[in-house]
Amino acid sequence: MSHVNNAINWKEIFHPRNLLLNLIGVAFITLALKGFMIPNKFLDGGVIGISILVHELVPVPFALLVFVFNLPFIFLGKRLLGNTFALQYLLTLSLISISMASIEFDAVTSDKLLIALFGGCLIGIGMGLCIRSGSVADGFEILAVMTTKKIGLNVSEVIFGMNTLIFLAAAWYFGITTALYSIVTYFAAVKSLDYVADGLEQYTSLNIISSESEAIKSLIVEKFGKGITVIKGERGYLPDNFLVKHDCDIIVTIVTRLELLRIKDEVRQLDPKAFMFIHYIKEASGGILRHKQKH
Fold it and tell me: Where does the DUF2179 domain lie (predicted)?
């Protein structure tokens, strides 16, 4: 295991922006759970889903269950990510438990589709805001990171496998209909979390092959202020003329979602036949990227 910095960054933990994001995130999670999911026996994935399932089976308060079930992941987070993350995680977990134990309001709706969509979106937004604050609201991803090192699967596959067991248990105890709607809730939460955590500025690798490569290089660098990498390649090798080929420049640049369509439109104006393809990436740093505040 790589070395983890165990020094506690109190400024990061109690930064007003991080605290505000955490509080708003917990508010969304509480609304999703109290107003939509728990009254209607709907599950999300992860530790929260397990807590809802156990809460429906045994007379133990949900606030206590979600706190206790998340405690082991705090220690895992401490080992993997350090003391600062562990304390932020503990703070988020405490806020969720307190809000779930102390705030009472009636279910917003009993319509299953509305519960699945709005409950999932709200809890996903809440978890995304907690991530933006430097914390998490559920420990499954920490467990998945450790598990993937032992069994060779990636994090997404491990999380999907663990959540599949939760939804199978939901189908057994609550019926197949509720379990299927819970899966919709889970996917709505995942998509909402991605948009909030990564934002509209999620980075994308745009790759361009064009006969007007020099003009496109100038466009990207001078007009859009983006850095580029030029890979020397060959184009041609067509099925009906395999032996014909010529050198070309493959232009690679890292852009955000908001920039992607604008750059593609202007590239097409320079060369309507330009070949473009994109890779979605989880993270990019260094080089000429838009500077974003570190969370």
Answer: 227-286
